[in-house]
Design a protein that fits this description.
Layout: H1 22-33, H2 36-43, H3 47-61, E1 66-67, E2 75-76, H4 78-113, E3 118-124, H5 128-138, E4 142-148, H6 151-159, E5 165-171, H7 179-184, E6 193-207, E7 228-229, H8 236-247, H9 265-273, E8 279-283, H10 284-289, E9 293-307, H11 314-324, H12 326-333, E10 338-340, E11 346-347, H13 349-352
Parallel strand pairs: 3-4, 3-5, 7-8
Antiparallel strand pairs: 1-2, 5-9, 6-8, 6-9, 6-10, 6-11
Helix pairs in contact: 1-2, 2-3, 4-9
Length: about 375
């Protein structure tokens, strides 16, 4: 049994939130380049260093990581390939937690290094644009302490005072009586909660490159041979998927894998990329970054919710200003499947989520 230790980098030019291991980076480079020398050049290391490190790890594990056949391309052994697969799977599954850990550490140091820095605590449904926003916010001395959770849990955390901002998403103009209404209406109160425009994004089926099974609609998920991977209960994506299934007259149990659960869009895409599943439901950005195909099914709005009482707080005002910046909106539009949506505007909840009806008093 091998133990795992973690560390982090502190500095102005610290890398994005990744838990890296030099051995796995070596294996990835060798696997993709097909030679030790090419892998060394790619990593900016000497051939001798890479060769020595691989031999050292062979001795550490007591088994070979690379096939060393003279005159042939270097390739991973079964053990090396499984080791690399395990690390990439862990990266995909734990991405939200890794990002939250980085944000927590950064928040602590933000106060130590800059007393005037703004800190805003988020509970939010996992979203690639929010990660990008956190990166851009740091340049504005605004630190977003983002903890990724399901949309339902995010709004509950807001109402219970455990965060200052909640991120959740719904279909554009969700219908009366829909699952979205039954899920979110009890948690949101006009007059107490306020919505801020953030982004419009597309959700759909994440499938293998070339879409070998020809999956196009929710009905295709009911085929006997199709293995589906789902999001966790309480996530906005699971609410949305169940709403689509209900509209199509499909019972959840008719979809093989509906009761499975992955914690993020990245983990869903990883399951498809590794062949564990044939399809998953998620966002386009995570499909594209892994070279997968994407079948769009529905557009949705991603909102940020806060309490009315916090709108005038300096940290919230700094966030609104950032969301309105043309530079941020250009970056958002560059993400696959995303577009700005009244970014930084405080919206009328009863207009964008038309579930409430208030009678106008009669004038006597």
């Amino acid at each position: 049994m091998h133990r795992i230790s973690l560390n982090y980098v502190l500095g102005a030019d610290a890398a994005p939130a990744l838990v890296r291991n030099s051995l796995l980076d070596l294996l990835q480079a060798v696997s993709e380049e097909g030679s030790i020398s090419a892998a060394a050049r790619r990593l900016g290391l000497s051939y001798r260093h890479v060769w020595g490190e691989l031999k050292r790890w062979d001795a550490e594990f007591g088994r070979a990581l690379i096939h060393w056949e003279k005159g042939h391309a270097a390739r991973l052994t079964d053990f090396g390939a499984k080791l690399l697969w395990a690390e990439r799977q862990a990266q995909a599954r734990l991405l939200p937690q890794i990002e939250a850990l980085r944000a927590n550490i950064e928040r602590a140091f933000a106060v130590a290094f800059d007393e005037s820095a703004h800190v805003l605590t988020f509970f939010a449904s996992h979203d690639e644009a929010l990660i990008a926003l956190g990166e851009q916010a740091r340049a504005q001395r605004l630190h977003l302490d983002i903890r990724f959770t399901g949309s339902v849990d995010a709004i509950r955390a807001l109402n219970e005072g455990r965060c200052e901002m909640a991120g959740f998403h719904t279909r554009i103009q969700p219908a009366h009586g829909s699952l979205s209404q039954r899920t979110y209406k009890p948690l949101l109160q006009p007059g107490r909660n306020k919505l801020i425009g953030f982004a419009r994004r597309t959700q759909g089926l994440i499938v293998a490159r070339g879409n070998p099974l020809g999956l196009r609609t929710p009905h295709d998920l009911t085929r006997a041979r199709v293995r589906f991977v789902n999001r966790a209960l309480g996530s906005g994506s699971r609410v949305l998927l169940d709403e689509l299934l209900a509209e199509a007259g499909i019972a959840p149990e008719a979809v093989r894998g509906h009761d499975s659960a992955e914690p993020s869009h990245a983990a869903v895409a990883h399951a498809v990329a590794t062949g564990t599943a044939d399809a998953g439901f998620g966002i386009e950005a995570n499909a594209r970054v892994r070279g997968l195909d994407f079948i769009p099914l529905v557009e949705e709005n991603y909102f940020l919710a806060c309490l009315k009482s916090s709108l005038e707080q300096p940290a919230t005002q700094a966030l609104l200003a950032l969301l309105r910046m043309a530079e941020w909106q250009r970056r958002l539009a560059g993400l696959p499947g995303y577009a700005p949506m009244t970014s930084g505007e405080v919206l009328s909840m009863t207009r964008v989520l038309p579930w409430w009806r208030f009678r106008t008093p009669r004038v006597r």
